[in-house]
């Protein structure tokens, strides 16, 4: 469970981001064309949503602003190493997906998927032999289901296929 | 008669039956693993169903949804952890029942009641949907606008948690739905010069990101503890079903009725049905003091209710194209992509497709019995499957699933962005369900809104000029004002 202070900080930031997104929508929608002979057109619906996001986002951010300010004015020990480790663990799936996108065309989807599964299992504490077996089985199952049955052209890779 | 036989031909063929069995086994596995939800099961299945004919595709998703909701009871009985949110209402009851060394008996009761609830919900669909469809034929853009808004409003205001955050989640989904060519003026919106965005945001990668990638990120940020089953078990799955049904048959019927009714409400899903039915069961029980100690009455009523709600939620989804919950939102999205637009016309034409749909719903619930029996016998193995083995496999399937829709890495990136955003929003307490509902319903909402505006020449009072439209509008306004009214009433009462 998240502690309350962290949750409040998250709410404040999310409120700000949503409000900014709303502002972007409103600004972008200004240039949309209207219907002939009418004052409204393609911009009307996005404008309503955009304004709702601005108002709601600001409201959410402001209602959580005081606890966040208190959090920053109260000195607290910062555990940099733990924070960095936590950040790294959190974004592990993101790095792995990006890794897949970068390597699949070269190594092929089969091998890249096996690597991805094996790496995530090993880093999650699965025994190496089990991680290897599961990785190979997963990649083979995906290859069988998607390439042979559903005819999805997953990348074959240039390393093994010239 | 020809239509019925033709419908049977669409269902009783090897491909559809194998798909139903495979979907049931998949749903059972996903539901039995704590932390994996029914929506996630359907989300992972969508890329596969994308390549199927409409009936096997719908069969796969309906079966998965129904079976996953029951399978969520398995870890509840063994570990006191609900497999899906729909089992949360009676997890303590099921666990207390299992503590007597009767986990299989408890799950046997839940299984049979889930099947009964699911079939009663399907009967509601079969008998109510055609009448509603006939009624809906008179609907114009005004009524469709209010109906879509009613579905979204229910999703926002009936669900637990902050209403403001739910509204903002909904706005995010609606804003994503505006990306692409505008249907009224034909001009591109929010495409930023990217050609791939002209057709709009592909909802499948977004959905996989929202419900699967965010879950994988939650797992890697805080890996779950190893699960161990300590409950002893006799293994007599159907041992206590007959006495429980004989004693509590009224509860089964009431739970199924309540669940079907709540399922029919747009935006309210099986988890809400389960909570309501558990409370109703306790309220009207002759032995309310036995609740919490493993009383069969609560399990009977609630397990029939949540599966009835799954079936009931298909009524607004198929008749109006308004999703009853997140699962039906996903399915509606797939139906649109396949060119099979849900709406009253499906029922009014009364073709083989409608009969095939009804048969699929019944088979999906019946197949739960044998598959559920096997799953209960293997239950201990299922629930103890470590998430550190499951989640990497889920991640691999997510990538290939998102890629396979258009054979495009852009969709994989879209999935990743949706996943990261959903994780961040989830940490701040924003629900993910309204985002997908907004994305799926946004097109209908805007199209009906703009059509109504053009017809009325911008006169907003016209939205209340027709009787049904005015009633629906008043209902929507009431739902939006409900939190305020409740607060005022509480203050006055205090």
UniProtKB/TrEMBL annotation, chain A:
<feature type="transmembrane region" description="Helical">
    <location>
        <begin position="44"/>
        <end position="62"/>
    </location>
</feature>
<dbReference type="InterPro" id="IPR009936">
    <property type="entry name" value="DUF1468"/>
</dbReference>
<feature type="transmembrane region" description="Helical">
    <location>
        <begin position="107"/>
        <end position="123"/>
    </location>
</feature>
<dbReference type="Pfam" id="PF07331">
    <property type="entry name" value="TctB"/>
</dbReference>
<feature type="transmembrane region" description="Helical">
    <location>
        <begin position="82"/>
        <end position="101"/>
    </location>
</feature>
<feature type="domain" description="DUF1468">
    <location>
        <begin position="14"/>
        <end position="155"/>
    </location>
</feature>
<feature type="transmembrane region" description="Helical">
    <location>
        <begin position="130"/>
        <end position="150"/>
    </location>
</feature>
<keyword id="KW-0472">Membrane</keyword>
<keyword id="KW-1133">Transmembrane helix</keyword>
<protein>
    <submittedName>
        <fullName>Tripartite tricarboxylate transporter TctB family protein</fullName>
    </submittedName>
</protein>
<feature type="transmembrane region" description="Helical">
    <location>
        <begin position="12"/>
        <end position="32"/>
    </location>
</feature>
<keyword id="KW-0812">Transmembrane</keyword>
From TrEMBL, chain B:
<feature type="transmembrane region" description="Helical">
    <location>
        <begin position="190"/>
        <end position="213"/>
    </location>
</feature>
<feature type="transmembrane region" description="Helical">
    <location>
        <begin position="107"/>
        <end position="133"/>
    </location>
</feature>
<protein>
    <submittedName>
        <fullName>Tripartite tricarboxylate transporter permease</fullName>
    </submittedName>
</protein>
<feature type="transmembrane region" description="Helical">
    <location>
        <begin position="388"/>
        <end position="405"/>
    </location>
</feature>
<keyword id="KW-1133">Transmembrane helix</keyword>
<feature type="transmembrane region" description="Helical">
    <location>
        <begin position="54"/>
        <end position="72"/>
    </location>
</feature>
<feature type="transmembrane region" description="Helical">
    <location>
        <begin position="139"/>
        <end position="159"/>
    </location>
</feature>
<feature type="transmembrane region" description="Helical">
    <location>
        <begin position="314"/>
        <end position="336"/>
    </location>
</feature>
<dbReference type="Pfam" id="PF01970">
    <property type="entry name" value="TctA"/>
</dbReference>
<feature type="transmembrane region" description="Helical">
    <location>
        <begin position="425"/>
        <end position="445"/>
    </location>
</feature>
<dbReference type="InterPro" id="IPR002823">
    <property type="entry name" value="DUF112_TM"/>
</dbReference>
<feature type="transmembrane region" description="Helical">
    <location>
        <begin position="466"/>
        <end position="486"/>
    </location>
</feature>
<feature type="transmembrane region" description="Helical">
    <location>
        <begin position="356"/>
        <end position="376"/>
    </location>
</feature>
<feature type="transmembrane region" description="Helical">
    <location>
        <begin position="12"/>
        <end position="34"/>
    </location>
</feature>
<keyword id="KW-0472">Membrane</keyword>
<feature type="domain" description="DUF112">
    <location>
        <begin position="17"/>
        <end position="437"/>
    </location>
</feature>
<keyword id="KW-0812">Transmembrane</keyword>
